[in-house]
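User: Can you predict the 3D structure for this chain?
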Amino acid sequence: MDFNELVQAITSVHDELSVRSTKAVNFSLTVRNWLIGYYIREFEQDGSDRASYGDKILQNLSSRLPHGDGFSHRSLKLYRQFYVAYPQFRQTVFAQCSPSVIRQTPSAHSPNGTPIQAIQELNKDFANNQDFNEVLIRSVSFSHFTLFISIEDSIKRNFYELESVRGNWSVRELKRQIGSLYFERSALSRDKQALSFHTQSHTEPQSTNLIIRDPYVFEFLGLKSEDVMYESDLEKALLKKIEAFLLELGYGFCFEARQKRILIGEEYYFVDLVFYHRVLKCHVLIELKVGGFSHECLGQLNTYLNWYKAHKMTDGDNPPVGLLLCTEKNQALVEYACAGMDNQVFVSKYLVCLPGTEEIREFVEGEIQKNLAGR
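Assistant: Here is the predicted structure, written as structure tokens:
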């Protein structure tokens, strides 16, 4: 072995085991969520004191589980839906856990009250093939399953399951294919093999980086959003500098969060920086785009502002303010977005209390120059 071979050997073992560990984390998360859904469903059907909780089972359960967003009412409902949609995972899941974890009940209900074995006898398609079940649960993330269970038609769901496994699709790719009506187009196509070949050759595969950045995964691992969501070292460095810059200005900024996760519909989004301004009595949301300005950037920030206005404003608060920072080579564009600010007194105060766009632009450009010079 020469030195180059030594480098290659270490790189190869690192890459392979990193992928393996990432897949193991993802699989453990999926198993955990299925088991939680199983426990909840069994309690709803056979729990000795279930009548005491009525329709408030999930609310009460969420309040008793001290593990953050991973056990919110919405998450627990989702885990129950996961079990309801995939009772055939029972054998695979139970084989992975110790007897102390698996609390089997004599009833072994399937979600609709029919024994699981009877359902499997009635449904002979590939989704009830145990070999495929094993491949499916190990190949895709729990975020894939959240999309699968939203598809009511079992044949359509099976189609996307199979195509996702075959193409090693990312969640983003699966979402795109569902939105493009791939299943419906395949049903209408005369040459289904040609369509499948064309589709699979133009898809985005799942990657280790995408799996780790999955909100469910870093929720499971106890990671903070800011630990995993940066697009580049430049973005991370700029956001840290911008945070310090605004706090040092003394305008009344109070730091709240970096890479703040918000849930809109069924999707998670991340706001780069969130401050509360004690003088203006409002949140200030900052989005940094390492690249040129686009209307999509402004639309995204405005969406976050509307969400904060609907979900975070309390009595006495003013509407949130947005600050969009875009970089293009050595030029910086700074744009404020004021959602619903028709109060002229507030707007005037806003102009006085917030730093000017030229001041921020010069700061951002200076930091970009420093980062480029350091490379």
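The chain has two domains: 3-212, 225-373. The first strand starts at residue 253 and ends at 264.
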